[in-house]
Amino acid sequence: MSTLSTLDRLEAESIHILREVAANFARPVLLYSIGKDSSVLLHLLLKAFAPGKPPMPMLHVDTTWKFREMIAFRDRRAAETGVDLIVHINPDGVRDGVGPFTHGASTHTEIMKTQALKQALDKYKFDAAIGGARRDEEKSRAKERVFSFRDAQHRWEPRRQRPELWNVYNARIHAGESVRVFPLSNWTELDVWRYIARENIPVVPLYFAAKRPVIERDGLIIMRDDERMALLPGENVRMETVRFRTLGCYPLTGAVRSTAANLDEIIAEMRDSRTTERQGRAIDHDPKSSMEAKKRAGYF
Amino acid sequence: MSAATTPDLLRLITCGSVDDGKSTLLGRFLYDAGLLRDDERAGLGDPPDFSRLLDGLALEREQGITIDVAYRYFSTARRDFIVADCPGHAQYTRNMATGASTASLALVLVDARKGVLTQTRRHSYICALLGIRRVLLAVNKMDLAGFDEAVFTRIETEYRALAAKLGIDSVTAIPLSALDGDNLAIRSKRTPWYRGPTLLEFLEQVPAVAENAAAPMRLPVQWVNRPDLDFRGYAGNLVSGRVAVGDEVIALPSARRTKVARVLNGDADVNSAVAGQAVTLTLADEIDIARGDVIAATHDAPEVADQFAAHILWMDEAPLLPGRLYFLQLGPASAVARVTAIRHRIDVDTQESKAATKLEMNEVGYVHLSLDHALAFEPYAKNPALGGFVLIDRQSFATAACGTIDFALRRAGNIHWQALAVDRAARAASMQQHARCLWFTGLSGSGKSTIANQVEQRLHALGKHTYLLDGDNVRHGLNRDLGFTAEDRVENIRRVAEVARLMVDAGLIVLVSFISPFRDERRMARELFGANEFAEVFVDTPLAVCEARDPKGLYAKARAGELRNFTGVDSPYEEPLQPELHLRTEKESVDALARRVVEFVERGSK
Question: Does pTM top 0.90 for this prediction?
C-alpha cells in the first residue's frame, strides 16, 4: 500500500480533468488570468499532454487595467511554453472608455470582464472553458461542480446542477451550451503555493514582497501602476514593502503589508494567515451573495 | 518537501437530517479547532451562527436548508481534509450521492433525543451503496439528553446493528454537543463515562484511504497522445496497482498483449508509477488502443462483458423505464445501454426489496443492463474506478442515474432480447397458422427429402406459409465451411436449428430435412423451441434398403473408403426414442406418409 501526498492526489485529479476536457470537447480553451492559479493550470496543462503540445489555446480577457507586470509575464510565458494565446478586449468598453474610476468597480467588471468573456466565448465558439477557480475561495463556489453546465446565455443555475459522481464527468451538451471546468476545485490556496514551490512554477513577481508605490483608499492598499489613477485630495503615493495575494485590475486589487519575498516565506505566512484571500478584492464586497449573483448572470 | 512532512488527505462526507445540526457541528468544530480565518469568524455574527459558514446559496439561507453539497477544506498539523457537507432532505438524495462518491468516511449525525431515524437509515444506505465502509456516528445534542450514557449506548447499539446489515465494517460513536463544543476539539467534562477519542482526535488518526497499489495494474485510457509520428502514448490515471518499464500488459477489450516501453510523468521518463498517479505509457508494439480501453496486468486482467447486474440510484425527474436507451459512462469508456430488467426496487428507508416496473427520482433499484458493446470492468466493491458508472439521458443529456456494477451476466439464459411488440404468435396468427418446426431425421437415402418435399407441396396447397431447409442445400451455402467430423456435424445442426428457430419466430412452418444422427444435437435443437413448436419426424428405413437405393451413390463411395464418417457405415445413427411421428417407408407409400404428416400439422393448428 502506498499513500500519495495531498499534492500528488490533487495533481493527478487535475490532469485527469484536463484530459477529459480535451477528449470530450470540440473547442476547449484554458482561461488564463495570469495569476498563481492560472500559472498552476498552465503547468498542469503542459504536464497532461507532454511530450505533445496542449490541444487547446489559452484565452486572456484583458480589461486594460491589469498590472503592467502581469501583461509582460503573460507574453513571456506564452512564448516560453508555445501554447497559443488569444487576447480579447471588449471593443464596446474601449469605445465607451469604461474603467473602474469613471464607471465604478461593478460596471467596469461587468463590461470589461463578464461581457468580454461572453463575447470571446461566442466569437471563438468555445464549448468548454477551463478556469482556475477553487471551491475554498468563496461560499457559492464551494457548491459548484467541476464540470459546471451553462446554458446558451452562459447562465449558471445552481438548482439544476448535474450530479457529479467519482471522477466520471458528463460532458454532453447541446449546440450553443457550454461548460466551465474547474480542475483546481479541490485545491486550497496553500496547496497552490506548495505546488508552485514543489514544481518550480514561474509566477508574476507581484506576489513577492518588494517596495512599491502605494496609496490607501477605501481601506485597501492600492498600487498606483500608471498615471490613469488620479490622486484624490490628501492622497500621497508612498513606497511600501507590500505583496499581492491575488491579482486582477490594479485599481481594484488590495496589496498586503508583507516581507515575504520568496516561496518559503509566502507559505509560512499563509500557514499563519488569519484572513482569506478574497478580502483584498474590492469587487467581492458587494451586497450579499454577490458571487452567486454574478455567476448566475454569467460571470466566470 | 520530504515524505515525512507531506500531509495526506482524508475525504469525508457529513450527513444527517434537517434539524440535527450538521452545519452547526462543522462550523463549531472548525471554530474550536482554530481553523477559521478572521474574516470568516466575523461573518458568523455575534453570537456566532455556525450554520452560516456552509449554507452558501442565497436560496439555502432563505429556506434554512441545505440543497447542494458544499465542500469545505481545512488542514490540521497532521493532515488535510476535504469535507462534503450534504443535504438531508430526501429530494436531494442524488446530491448526497455526489458527496458520498468521493468520500472514504461518513460522519453520520444523530440527535440524541430522536435516535436512529428513517433519514439516518437512508443516508447510511446511500453511503454503503457508494462503497463507504467506515462511519463516525456523532450522537449530537447530548446536552439535551442530560449527557446520559444509557441514551448514548442505546443509539450506538441500534446503529451498529444497522451498519452490520449494510456492510459497513467500522463504526466509531462519539457523544457530543455541537452547540457547546463537547468532544469536538476539546474533551468534555460532562461525559466522564466516555473514553473514546474526540472528533478531532478521531479525524486525525483514522486511516486515510490508501491507493490500491497491491491490486493488479489497471489504466483506463483517457487520451491517445500522438504529437508526431515517433510518439504514441496512452494517457490516464492508474486506478490500481503499479506499472514499470518492461511489464507485460494486455489491452482490453481487444486482448492484444505487449510490453510497457516507457512510463512518463509529465514529460519525464520514470521507471515506474503507482495507483493514483496520472501517467502516459508507450508500448513495445503498435497495437490499436482507443480512449475507453483498459491497459491491464497480463497475469490478472479484468473481465470484459456487455451485460451486467448493477445497483442504480435514479436521479432524473423522468423515471427510468426498462427498454429505453441511455448513454453509459464508465470512467473514460462510454456505451449505449438499456436496462433490460428491474429485478427489484430497494426501499432506501427500510432496505426492503420491492417489486417495481419503473424507478422514480431518488429510488434505488437492482437491474440488469445490456450494452451495445463490451467493456472492461470490475465489480464496484473490488475497484470503484472500473465498476462505477453514470447513465445519461440521450435527449436532455441529464445525468439520470449512478450505478455500481455487481457482476457480469454471461449465461445464455441471461441474454435479454429486445422486447418486441410484434411477437411470433402475432405473426403466425396473421398467417392463420401454427408456426412450428418439423424435424425430419433418418439415414441418407431413407426418403426424408422426398417426403418433406411432398409435405411442403400439400401444405402450400392448403395456403400455409412454409420453408424447407435441406441438408445438402444448406451445406452449399450457410454451412459450406463445415466438414463431416463429429464437431462439424454438431455445428452444422446448431446453425440449422438456429435458422429454423428464427423462421418459426417469423411465423413459418419450417421443414428441416437433415440426417442429424445424434440424439444430443436433436435435443439441442428441440430445446430452442417452445412446447408444441417442434416435432421430430423419424423417417425409418433399414440401412440395407437405403444402401440398396443409394440415390446419390454415396454408400458405394463410403464402402470403397472414399468417404469418411458416413452415417451408417463408419459413423453411428442414434435412432429417436420418442419421435412425434414415426414413418416406416417400407410399410406405407410416400403419399400416405406425407398425408399423415399434414394431418399432424392440421391437428396442431386447431
Answer: no
